[in-house]
Design goal:
The protein is about 20% helix and about 45% strand. It is an alpha+beta fold and about 170 residues long. It has a single domain, classed as Protein Transport Mog1p, Chain A (3-Layer(aba) Sandwich), CATH 3.40.1000. Strand 3 and strand 4 form a beta hairpin. The longest helix is centred in the N-terminal third of the chain and has 14 residues. It is globular and about 50 Å long. The N and C termini lie far apart (about 50 Å).
Length: about 170
């Protein structure tokens, strides 16, 4: 009887659980889990995008995660991640009219040293829209894993889901 009661009490929570898919492509050097209502596309050969569902007819921007993997024998050997990130970040700042660095931290991603930077602002080509970016950079086996999550600064609806996707990413050997 107690088991039946527990199941009845828990069943509403399970019915609202979101269905997740697994991204795994033989030519892409990572796997990821993402919600079934997000769209997954591969562009430019090996750039992977996960795009949020539309929030309706007035949805001006689809939040998205894009991940690219590039290979260079210097990544992680003669070139270290902390030396690599700063020049990229300096160049990114130049593309903004107004720019705010929110956080910058050394983290572990798949157990490997990485950097995560969160910043916001309005870019020169989209000066009326304010965006928030979360970027991660990591060297693994002479590869650079570079991830960017982009959302409107005023919309945090998908941030937690984006974090779940980001944390599900596993590098392939």
């Amino acid at each position: 009887m107690r088991i039946l009661l527990c199941l009845l009490l828990l069943s509403p929570a399970f019915s609202f659980a979101q269905e997740w898919k697994t991204f795994n492509n033989d030519s892409i050097l990572f796997t990821a889990k993402y919600p079934a209502d997000w769209v997954n596309k591969i562009k430019d050969g090996k750039r992977v995008f996960f795009t949020s569902p539309s929030e309706g007819k007035d949805d001006a921007f689809a939040e998205n995660i894009n991940i690219s993997v590039s290979t260079n024998s210097q990544y992680g050997t003669t070139l270290k991640i902390d030396e690599f990130v700063q020049p990229i970040f300096d160049n990114v700042k130049k593309t903004f009219i107004e720019f705010t660095e929110e956080t910058r931290q050394a983290i572990k991603w798949n157990g490997i040293d990485a950097y995560e930077i969160t910043y916001s602002g309005n870019r020169k080509e989209d000066e009326k829209m304010w965006f928030r970016f979360i970027q991660r950079f990591c060297f693994y086996k002479s590869r650079l894993y570079m991830l960017t999550y982009v959302s409107l600064k005023s919309n945090n609806k998908f941030t937690e889901t984006a974090r779940q996707i980001i944390n599900s990413i596993k590098f392939k050997p």
